[in-house]
Design goal:
GO cellular component, one term: mitochondrion
Number of helices: 16
Strand order of the largest sheet: 16-17-18-15-14-20-21
Protein name: methylmalonate-semialdehyde dehydrogenase (CoA acylating)
Family: Belongs to the aldehyde dehydrogenase family.
Structural class: alpha/beta
Helix content: 25-40%
GO molecular function: methylmalonate-semialdehyde dehydrogenase (acylating, NAD) activity
Distance between the termini: 33 Å
Strand content: 15-25%
Keywords: NAD, Oxidoreductase
Amino acid sequence: MLPLKFSIQRARNLKALKPSIFALRSSYYFSTGVVEPSSSLRSPPRVPNLIGGKFVDSQSSSTIDVINPATQEVVSQLPDIDKLAMNITTEQGKTLKDAHGDVFRGLEVVEHACGMATLQMGEYVPNVANGIDTFSIREPLGVCAGICPFNFPAMIPLWMFPVAVTCGNTFVLKPSEKDPGASIILAELAMEAGLPNGVLNIVHGTNDVVNAICDDDDIRAISFVGSNTAGMHIYSRASAKGKRVQSNMGAKNHAIVLPDANTDATLNALVAAGFGAAGQRCMALSTVVFVGDSHSWENKLVELAKSLKVNAGTEPDVDLGPVISKQAKERVCKLIQSGVESGARLLLDGRNIVVPGYKDGNFIGPTILSGVTADMDCYKEEIFGPVLLCMKADSFEEAIHIVNRNKYGNGSSLFTASGAAARKFQTEIEAGQVGINVPIPVPLPFFSFTGSKASFAGDLNFYGKAGVNFYTQIKTITQQWKDLPGGSGVSLAMPTSQKL
């Protein structure tokens, strides 16, 4: 646990992260040297842990391969709790442009955390009664932890540890075993910026490491982003040990399109939000509900989706990279087929796409299913791939009912030219993040990431004021400084504002 003066200094020092992180845009160099293509590596490097400010080798004999999803080559090996600093695109598969966005959306939270001294100010009321003052302060919890997903290997860690450490805590970060490299880069930059040894620590692994974090008596709070299965396991297990948990989980984000929506702007938004990052975003627009006639919308949607370029994320002008693994590709393809077998119309099929030079890649092209209904598995489950589902509603009210009936509540958007419709939507829709003509309404860090329903477990969301409250404990002090008359006797009555 760090005192307040350290948290203020950490906020100042984190400003030094900005130029270093911006330098990542044009450089793929790490402290260990230039990252070479995995085909040139005779033996994949083993990834170190970060413990007490030092990168240390794991003693584990078992390893987990980190696979390049575009080539299936092993780029590094993780002993159960190890990892290697490597490029986001190489490990995760997203395009370079999207990888830059991954970093910069996280950097926004870093910048916000630089103002932590004012963000955690308490309240003060002098002379509430008979010379008595009352005030509140926020104190650090102690040791906190973060468990991260594969899809945003830079942004999600930056949602967590900058807020936690500037609030005065120490932090244990467990990145995804699929793409651990970005966390090592961020840790190196944080230490260069002056973060004291032991404030940020990194461990690697899978289920056993997650359970150890949930069970450790010294860890007071856990932040998690990932699937519902893992999220609810972590929430239940850690909460049973008395820990605070914020668990951001699955989603089925909808867009309602009214007939008066701007055609070109809406189509561009649907395609970008539906297929960007190969659909591997918790805020991806996976379902479109067209109110009224949908035929013309769907035809134009297909034509625009066909124009997207699918290739390895390092290739120029690419729009979609591969999905993270062969298992992920198989799951996405299975859900597409289940939709077809349930009666949905396959308007665009990206399952058999061929990418020259990357025959072993986990590629899926943009896919569009129409005539989808709420009882289909492709609708009930989060696909997490470049698949856009099209549904139809006869009225605006029916469309809102479709969205609200879904168990998830991460985000939802409306496309319209009507202010009255927008007001009705923002009032009645049951989602944490609401967009009006905005396809991915993720808020800037002055606010909080406010997923709800089955998309979130806990009572304090990520970053913003809620994030500060999550990583701190409020303490209220009532004090009296005055000469008390002697011989007043003992009173056992409940004190009130008049008798304090």
